[in-house]
Amino acid sequence: MCGITATVGADDAVSRLLTGLENLEYRGYDSAGVAVANGSGVEVVKREGQVEELVDLLSSTSIDGSVGLGHTRWSTHGPPTNANAHPHTDCRGELAVVHNGIIENHAELRERLRAAGHTFTSDTDTEVVPHLVEEYLATGAGIETAFRRAVADLSGSYAIALIHEDEDAVYATRQGSPLVFGLADDTPGSSSDETYYLASDVPAFLEFTDSVVYLEDGDVVRVAPDGYDITDREGAPVERPVETVEWSSDDVEKGAFDHYMRKEIDEQPTAIAQAVRGRAADGRVAFESLPDGAFADVERVQFVACGTSYHAALYGAQLLRERGISARVFLASEYAITAPPADDGTLLVGVTQSGETADTLAALRRGRSEGLRTMAVTNVVGSTAARECDDVVFIRAGPEIGVAATKTFSSQVVTLALLAERILRDVAGSHSETAPELLDALSDLPSAVSATLTDSSAEAIADRYGDSDAYFFIGRGTAHPVALEGALKLKEISYEHAEGFPAGELKHGPLALVTANTPVFAVATGAHTEKLLGSIEEVSARGAPVIAVAPRSERAVAEAADDVLWVPDSHPELVGLLANVQLQLLSYHTATLLDRPVDKPRNLAKSVTVE
Ligand code: AGP
Fold first, then answer.
1. Is beta strand 243-244 parallel, antiparallel or unpaired with respect to 211-214?
2. How far apart are CA 515 and CA 519, in angstroms?
3. Closest residue by CA, ligand 1 atom 2
4. How far is 611 from 333, CA to CA, in rounded Å?
5. Predicted local distance difference test score (pLDDT) of residue 246
6. What's the rounded Cα separation, in Å, for the pair 29 and 51?
7. Angle between helices 575-593 and 479-494 (to 10 degrees)
8. Residue 407 falls in the annotated catalytic set
9. Ligand 1 test: best mutation among 265, 335, 354, 412, most atoms within 8 Å of CB?
10. Which of 169, 193, 477, 543 is deepest in the core (most CB within 10 A)?
11. What pLDDT, in 10s, does the model give residues 273-310?
């Protein structure tokens, strides 16, 4: 995890770095720091805590410069302390480094450097990097050569940026961790023609520019006020196109909302409309860059994903199976170590909002190494999953900043529903008989989500059941992943104990947990709601309050429940998304009633780039 940023060319480097760090804070928020090179040395200011605490510190410790680095940390090696915060420096404080990723051989490098007389001041894996550069500089190498030689010693994953007091420049490289390069030619307050940015993700500099270069693994970039060059590991120049990002800076602002999560819940009608736009014309599903027949050889689909994306994949797999296509879902972290035997005809689909989740990338790489065709379903153009897979479909949700995934779940499921129809057409020669109703319902879905948002009693329900011992979520069919997602959302942002179960499994163990103080949310949007009624009876008989999450047509379920979170009637394969919106609101209100930091839940980060 962690977010890194760098800037070159603007006189107010520190304020631009802080803007970048605020926009990258979803990647980690337990300590933060900046460093600038300003002609009189390298100055570093860093501290434990969130970026706003660094901002406070910098208001009384001003540092100036036009070349700088920034970092916001999610701890892996060493606790969140001032000493472990980045940037890290060499023994003499002549250079500073920020890093995202994991240096796997840090222990052996540290031993080698200690033996050579270097003194370490942190527990981090990162600190070996500035000392390695220092070591190579001492042999007489120039800064660029020393940087390259240091990087060549590393194994693991990294995006690294470095400044040195002797040069007005940033050196950066990546291997397995994201790094994007932004170019702005009309930046107010800049004394050079262009201002440049490097960051773990585009939102860091979207306020300043939408012109981006997606760097590749092994690229080394040197950025100075008068220009930049990109080379490969051996130093040969490489060409990377400058692309224009479709996201706008408004997309990464909270606007009038208290939290990004609430804003992103509200953005779902637009996100869904974007996911469908242009992909369901004249009753046929079409994806850009996937020609007719692209899936003709697919015999089965395997999904790999984590967390919320795993739940979206469970939902999508059911839609495929309902169309007669074999589909299984694997937790990416497990698939990476115990993949099933590889068969011809298997399409391996990684569902990942960020496109950077290390477990999912490892699973996709494992499948690829065994000869499987891979496809990414992702939100982020230029992400590692998008670049490494044979095919890619974008979910087009726009940037999601809140750590809790909300709109991207909806966009993933909608995209997978379209994909299920598209695969079926290539495999069987035509869409399913029910495709016209599904495609109509998809175009109506944004207004159904709007109606759900406007008409929700989730806040009152959160208030009524806010003092419970635990919360359970049950559902069958496509309501099962919705139940799992409802529980994940509640636990991650409210810290309340919550579990989701397939309703039929209750009686095989979880029922022992049910008491009069454990509300059970019964998601009545999957098939077989008559069987869900049986589960409701079982928990009611143990005194548990039951809250149905149900469309108006499910009268029997609603009558059996103590409370209802109503959703509009919709297509049976999509109505689960409306139930999910209600559960997002329930989690949000529960967390705000408990005064939790909704967008930055403890111990978590949005983009999990370590296995
Ligand atoms: C959910 O709210 C979390 N943010 C988390 O479970 C997330 O879905 C998971 O880490 C996978 O992320 P990805 O979609 O970026 O791969």
1. antiparallel
2. 8
3. 404
4. 7
5. 87
6. 7
7. 20
8. no
9. 354
10. 477
11. 999 999 998 889 999 889 999 999 999 999 999 999 99
